[in-house]
Amino acid sequence: YRMILVFLRRELSIKDATLFWETIWVEDLFKEKEEKGDVPEFLVFAIVALIIERTQPIMKSCSSESDVVHMFCNLKINVWHMIEEARFIREKWLSITAGGN
Length: 101
Known about the structure:
The protein is mainly alpha-helical. It has helices at 2-11, 14-34, 42-53, 55-61, 65-73, 79-99. The protein is globular and about 40 Å long.
């Protein structure tokens, strides 16, 4: 978990990193307040959003784990878009898991 935060700080500007960290904290506070049970932390949804966004390039040009790592080390991340997508994915996940209860 900490390494992911360090990684994102290295890949984001200070302004974007601060925005993302604040969003993580707020989203996790909402999670606690809503008491949704076993909901993953917001960071997990943000990482899934990044992976989904880059599925095609990963499938086309990556033949090993090191290729994927290299691709993600050279990302230009649009933080607002990542946050919006992470929220969308979380809501979809919540609706799917709520339907299974």
